[in-house]
Amino acid sequence: MIPSVLPTYSRAPLHFVKGEGSWLIEEDGRRFLDLGSGIAVNALGHAHPDLVKALTDQAQMLWHVSNLYEIPQQQALADKLVAATFADTVFFTNSGTESCELAVKMARKYWYDKGHPEKTEIITFSGSFHGRSSAGIAAAGSEKMTKGFAPLLPGFKHLAWGDHEALYAAFDETTAAVLVEPVQGEGGIRPMPDQCLKGLRALCDEKGVLLILDEVQCGMGRTGRLFAHEWAGIAPDIMMVAKGIGGGFPLGAVLATEEAASGMTPGTHGSTYGGNPLACAVGCAVMDHVADPDFLAGVNRRAGHLRQKLEGLVADHPDIFESVRGSGMMLGLKCKVAPADFVKAGYAAQVITVPAADNVVRLLPPLTLSEDEIAEALVRLDKAATALEAHPA
Ligand SMILES: Cc1ncc(COP(=O)(O)O)c(C=O)c1O
C-alpha cells in the first residue's frame, strides 16, 4: 500500500523535534551536530532568537494579504537586497525552483520585447541542479532527473562542465542566456574557478547574451561573500536565490538589473504566496545578519579553520577520503567510499552531513558554526570515518 506521504524520498530514520543553533535534537533525546542545515537553508542555525522574534512578531500582526496590495516587509527586503547587490529589482518566490521558472521567463521575455523572439535558448552545464519543475529538470537535463517526464520543456543546450571549446562554439542567434551555479551544490560542490566566471561574463557581454546565476545554494553568505559571484568580481544580469534567504522559512527571490527585467511588466508574472509578510519579515532579519561585513568576516575565518581541519581528516583517513573542495562553509569531502555510507556512519556518530553527486559528502553547516563546534565536528567526523574503516558497508 502506498504510504500516506508520497514516497519520493529515501528518508533516514531520524525524527528531529527541536533545533538549537547548530544542533538538532532527536525524539529520543540524542543531540546531532548539524553540518547540513537542511541543505544550506538554516544559515543562522536553528531557532535564532532574531528570526524567532521577527516571525512571531509578524505572526501576531498579519500573515498574508496577497500581492494585490503593498507589502511593507517585501519592500523592505527588496530595498536591502538592492542596496547590497548588483540588482535593481527583486521578485519574491517561495523556493529555488520557482526562482528558476522566473529566471527562464525573464530572459526569454527580455529578448522577445527587444524584437528577437528567436532568442529562446539557454545554455546550461552538466552536473547542474536548478529544481524539479518542468523548466528545472529540462535545464539540468540529466537522465536521472528527466527520465519518464517527457516531453521536456524545449530551449536548453547542455554543455559539459569545464569544456571551454564547447562553450565558445555553443552560442548562436538563438542563444538567450547562460545559466550556471557559481558553485555546483547537488553536482558535488564544484566551484567554477573565478577566472572562468570572469571569462564567462566577458563571453556573454561579447555575444550579447544574458548571464543568469543560480545562487540558490551558494548564495546568502554560504561561501563567505554575500553572493558567490562576488569572489570573481563580476555581476550577473539575473540571479536566483532561495534556501538561506529565509533561514528556514520558505522564501526565494529573483534579482535582476533594470535592463534584464525590462520585459516583466504588470501581469507577466505572479505568485499567491511569494513575498508574503511572514517570509519577508524573516528574510529582513536574515539579511541584517548575513549582509553585515563583520558577520561575513567571521564566516571566512571559521570556514578557513574548518577547511584546515578537514584537510587533516582526509590525511588521517586515506581509505575513506580523497580530498576537500569548495568555498567558505560550502565544503565537499570527495570520498573513496559511497557518500551515503559515510553519511550513515555520521548518523551513528551524531553528526549530520549531506550526500551529493560525484562521490562527494557535503558540509553545509550553519554560518554561525562556532570554533568549539568545529572542533566537535571533527571529533564526530573522525569517529564516523574510523567506524567505516573498521566495518566497511
Ligand atoms: C542550485 C539550486 N538551484 C535550485 C534549487 C531548487 O530549490 P528548491 O528546492 O528550493 O526548489 C536547488 C535546491 O537544492 C539548488 O541547490
Automatic annotation (TrEMBL):
The modification N6-(pyridoxal phosphate)lysine is found at K243. Homodimer. Belongs to the class-III pyridoxal-phosphate-dependent aminotransferase family. ArgD subfamily. Pyridoxal 5'-phosphate binds at G96, T97, F129, D214, E215, V216, Q217, T272. Coiled coil: none annotated. It catalyses: N(2)-acetyl-L-ornithine + 2-oxoglutarate = N-acetyl-L-glutamate 5-semialdehyde + L-glutamate. The keyword rRNA-binding does not apply. Binds 1 pyridoxal phosphate per subunit. N(2)-acetyl-L-ornithine binds at R132, S271. Pfam families: Aminotran_3. May also have succinyldiaminopimelate aminotransferase activity, thus carrying out the corresponding step in lysine biosynthesis. GO terms for cellular component: cytoplasm. Its cofactor is pyridoxal 5'-phosphate. GO terms for biological process: L-arginine biosynthetic process. Keywords: Amino-acid biosynthesis, Aminotransferase, Arginine biosynthesis, Cytoplasm, Pyridoxal phosphate, Transferase. InterPro entries: AcOrn/SuccOrn_fam (IPR004636), Aminotrans_3 (IPR005814), Aminotrans_3_PPA_site (IPR049704), Class-III_PLP-dep_AT (IPR050103), PyrdxlP-dep_Trfase (IPR015424), PyrdxlP-dep_Trfase_major (IPR015421), PyrdxlP-dep_Trfase_small (IPR015422). Its EC number is 2.6.1.11. Its main location: cytoplasm. It comes from the Bacteria. This is Acetylornithine aminotransferase. GO terms for molecular function: identical protein binding; N2-acetyl-L-ornithine:2-oxoglutarate 5-aminotransferase activity; pyridoxal phosphate binding.
